[in-house]
Amino acid sequence: MSRLIVVSNRVNPPSGKGEESVGGLAMALAAALREYSGIWFGWSGKTTPEFTGQLNMQRVEGVTVATVDLEEGDYQEYYNGYANKTLWPLFHYRVDLTAYDRSFGEGYDRVNKRFAETLRPLIEPDDIIWVHDYHLIPMARELRRLGVTNRIGFFLHIPWPAHQLVVTLPRHRPLVEALFHYDVVGFQTEESLQAFEGYVFNEVGGEKTEDGRLRAFGQITEAGAFPIGIDADDFARITKSPRAMRVYDRMAAHSVFRKMVVGVDRLDYSKGLEERLLGFERFLHDHEDARREVMLLQIAPLSRDEVEAYQDIRSRLDGLIGRINGAYAEMDFTPIRYLNRSYRRDELAGVYRAAKAALVTPLRDGMNLVAKEYVASQNSEDPGVLILSRFAGAARQMKEALIINPNSPEEISDALAQALAMDETERKRRWEDLMDNVTRQDVTAWRDDFVAALKGDPTVMAANTETPDEPAVTT
Ligand code: ADP
Ligand code: F6P
C-alpha cells in the first residue's frame, strides 16, 4: 500500500484523551489518518525569530507527525494575513472584510515554498500526497519545482466562491493556476465545484477534456465534489462513554436544561452567531410562554483572535448577549449561557445529546461538521431536532433538518418553535434519515473516495454527484 502524506497548516495529532483541538479539518484528518501509516506534515503552531526549517518528528498512534516552526513575520503575513485576512473572508463572501495587501500574498508564497522545501526530503517515490485547505494552495507548484512527480491532490475545506468574488484578488490567476499543478482538486459541494469551473471557463478560457477533466494554463487537473463527513461510529461510541453519560445525566437532572437548544462553533463571523442570537431574541419576544423554559447554550471557543474582524465579532456578541439576557433573564433563569472555551469530544457528545435542538446557522460554510456531530449524538428513542442554515455545505445532504435562512430572525424563531413542538414520530423519522446520511457519507467514505480518485480510479468522480434539487425551506 502506498504511504499517504497529509499536508495541512494546522496539525492536531490525536492525543488519545479526547482533547483534540477545535476545527473541522483537524477532526476529519485525525480520523482519516488513523487507517494509514502515513505522515502528517504542517505548522507546529509555534514561531521563532528566524525560519530554521528544522523538522520536529514524533510518532502518535501510528502516524508520523512532522512539523516545522514559522518565522514571526511569516506567521503575520501568511497565517494572520493572506490566509485569514484575505482568503478566508473572501471565500466566505465577506469582501467588506477582505484585505488585499501585497505583502500578505508574498508571505503566503514564501511560506508555501518553505513548507515544500522542508517536506521534500521526506517524500518517497510511491507516496501519495494530499494537501488541505486554503493556506496551502501553491504547495503542489512548489513541490513540482523541486522535482516531485508523485500524485498530489488538494482538498478545499471552505467554499469556493463565485467568479466575481475571485477576480477581486489582485493575483487571482496565479492562485488558480497553482491548482492545476495538482492531479485532483476536491471541493465540498457541487456548488463550489461549479463556481470553480465557472472561473476556469469564463476567466481563463479553460475547457473540459473528453474524459471530464479540466484543461487550463496548459495543464490538466481532475476536479470533483467530495463532501466531508465525521467519524460517525466513533461519535456514536463516545456518546455512550462514561464521561458523555455523566454530562448528559447532569443536564437531564436539572430543570434548566430541560428545553436546551445548543450552538457549538469557533467564534467566527462566518458562523452566523449574531444572526442566531437575533433569531433567539425574536423567539423569546414572540413566545412569552417559552421565556422561563427555553435556554440557549452557546459554546464558542476563541479563534484567530489576533485578527481584528474576530475581535470585533467577539465584542459585538458580548454586547448582544448582555442585551438579551438583560431583557429576558429572571432572578433564577438566564436565557443564554455563553462559554468561550473548548471541551473534550466526549463532553460535547453529552451536551449535544441533552439538547432538544441544535442551531447551526452559518452565513457560509464549506460543510459544517457540528451539524453531523449533533445528529450522530442523538438517541434513537428521543432524538433532538437539527436547525440548519441553507448556506452550510451540509444542507445539500441533510435535507430532513429544518432548513432556514440565517439572515431571517423570523425563520430562526419559527424553526425553534417548530422544533420544540415537534412530536416524537416526526423527530424519529427526520433523525433516521439524517443519521443514515451521516453514517453512509462518513469520514472514511470521504477519505477512500478522494484517495481512490488520487490513485486514478475513474469510477469515483462519476459516482460522486449529489441530488440536484434545492434544499427545502422550512414552513
Ligand atoms: P470549522 O472547521 O469552520 O471550525 P466545523 O463545524 O466543520 O467548522 O468543525 C468544527 C469542529 O470543531 C467540530 O468537530 C467541533 O466539534 C469542534 N469544536 C467546535 N467548538 C468546539 C469546542 N468548544 N470544544 C471542542 N470542539 C469544538
Ligand atoms: O475547517 C476550516 C479551518 O479553517 C481549518 O483549515 C482550520 O484548521 C480550522 O478551520 C480552524 O482554524 P485555525 O486553524 O485557524 O485555528
Give a short overview.
The chain is an alpha/beta fold and 475 residues long. Helix content is 43%, strand content 18%. Bound molecules: adenosine-5'-diphosphate and 6-O-phosphono-beta-D-fructofuranose.
List keywords for this structure.
Rossmann fold, disordered C terminus, 17 helices, globular, 2 domains, 475 residues, binds 6-O-phosphono-beta-D-fructofuranose, alpha/beta, binds adenosine-5'-diphosphate, 6-stranded parallel β-sheet, 10-stranded mixed β-sheet, 18% strand
Bound molecules: adenosine-5'-diphosphate, 6-O-phosphono-beta-D-fructofuranose
Counting DSSP H or I runs of 4 or more residues, the number of helices is: 17
Tell me the total number of β-strands: 16
Radius of gyration: 22 Å
Q: Give the percentage of residues in beta strands.
A: 15-25%
Helix content: 40-55%
Classification by helices and strands: alpha/beta
| CATH class category of the largest domain | Alpha Beta
For the record, the CATH architecture of the largest domain stands as 3-Layer(aba) Sandwich
- CATH homology superfamily name of the largest domain: Glycogen Phosphorylase B
